[in-house]
């Protein structure tokens, strides 16, 4: 198995985080006048990590701890998506390899990547404002472009699907104490793909096709293995089976006669030759008993296709030279 690392999972993680980067919030006084305007930072990390840091700061104002609001996210799971399966034997090609050759990679394997986004806020107003800045863009999906395999020029449209939203309020102390923190949790599914190694396939310099006659059309040769007979068949003469030529049940023309092997090759057949019956030559009067038959399709044409020029290097333009030889 060839080594391949396109950093696709890392790219999906970074792309997911960038969607929620540069979100800003405002705070207002009782008269609706804006007092503060600030960016909400986002970092990669699990929920438990930041909850434990919050618990170490009862007043939520120690500089060595966490200043709210803040968001974090993490990838929680990845599963194969059979509903998006492609033909894994088909290759994608792209001009751009060494010496302007063509690169190729097999169709990708679809995977669903589960993400969770956490928003830690100090009050209800901040959380509600943050949700109103995020949720309207998901209906329930939001599509982003990700350059998955740059050397192949593969840029995929990746849907981010919002599955559900929930929040929890963490109180500190007794019932009359102030709200300590509010944590919003948004769960997403990212419809991604994973690609295998990129290869440089060889260019086909020549293609030869042999066209054979259809056995059912009668334009084929039949080889008859003979036994217990006499005479020598003549090339081109007519042979038949039956009491006489006029009442023959089958007729044909002799193509080859190999007496050393007791093998007769015939063509242009009419009727059906059968085993254990005499095959009689109309001119030579040769008579041999047919033992068995084998059908050999006759080659009627050969088509040879080569690029012009033959030493073409992609992605340069070129044509084809087609040569047809009929038998």
Uncertain runs with pLDDT below 50, 5 residues or more? none
CATH class annotation of the largest domain: Alpha Beta
Structural class of the secondary elements?
A: mainly beta
CA-based gyration radius? 40 Å
Could you name the CATH homologous superfamily of the largest domain? Myoviridae tail sheath stabiliser
Largest sheet: 6 strands, mixed
Q: Give the overall average pLDDT.
A: 85
Task: Please estimate the helix content.
Answer: under 10%
Tell me about this structure.
With 327 residues, the protein is mainly beta. 10% of the residues lie in helices and 50% in strands. The protein has three helices and 19 strands. The protein has helices at 8-19, 47-55, 124-134, and strands spanning 23-28, 34-40, 42-44, 70-80, 91-95, 102-106, 109-121, 141-149, 154-171, 179-194, 207-212, 220-230, 238-241, 250-258, 263-271, 278-281, 287-297, 299-308, 319-326. The chain has a six-stranded mixed β-sheet. A six-stranded antiparallel β-barrel has the order 12-15-14-13-16-17. A three-stranded antiparallel β-sheet has the order 11-18-19, with no helix packed on it. The longest helix has 12 residues, at 8-19. The radius of gyration is 40 Å and the shape is rod-shaped.
